[in-house]
Write a structure and sequence with these properties.
This protein is of the alpha/beta class. The chain is built from six helices and nine strands, in the order αβαβαβββαβαβββα. It binds 2-phosphoglycolic acid. Keywords: DNA-binding, Transcription, Transcription regulation.
Amino acid sequence: QVQALQGMETGALKLAAVTTAKYIAPPMLSAFCKAHPNIDVHFTVGNREQIAGRFKQNRDDVYIFSQPPEDVNIEATAFMDNKLVVIAPGDYNGPDYCTLHDLAGEKFLLRENGSGTRKAVDEYCTRQGFSFRDPMIIESNEAIRLSVASGLGLAILSEHTLAQSATDNIRVLNVQDFPICNSWYVVTRKNRPLSLTALAFKQSLLERIQ
Ligand code: PGA
C-alpha cells in the first residue's frame, strides 16, 4: 500500500455504494480524505439495482455491495460483516424468541424490489416457505426504521442502519436463523484500470478485514 500511495497527492475517486452501505462508507471515506486532502471525490448512493446498473456501465472506480452483481468482469472481496436483524417497536408485545413463521400475523415493512436487503429477505423466505401478509413497501432504510419506532410494524434491516438510533424506540427480536449473516464487498471491474487514488482507497477498505 505504501508503494501505491507514493506520488499520490491529487487525483479523483468515483465511489458508488448501495444505500445500506452509506452507514459504513462515510467514516472510511473521511479517514481516507484526511490522509489525502486534495482528492476529488464523487460518492453515489442507490439501491442494489441502481448501483449494479452503474457497475454495468463502468461509471465508477470502486463499489460497495452486500450482494455483488454477477458479471465476468467483477472483482469482489468481502471486507466486513453485514447482519440482517428483525426489529420491532420498543413497546411490541407479540412473539419473541420465535421463528419467522410465528410472526406471520404481524405487519412487515419491506424495502422495494431492486434492494439488496429485500433480495436477501426474499431468498430467506423462499427457502423457509414463508410469505409476508400484506406487507408495506417503503423505499428507504431510515423511513423504515422510523416507521418501526413509530409503531407501524416490524422490519428486517441491516444492523448498520440501527447504529445511529440510540434514541429510537426500537428493539431487536430474537428470531431463529437471525441475524442473516452477509458480508460487505469492495467491488471493482477487472477491465477498468484503477488510478493510484482508487487503488489506495480500495486498499484502505481491505485493511479493515477482521
Ligand atoms: P440495498 O443494499 O438494500 O440498499 O439495495 C443492501 C445490499 O445490497 O445488500
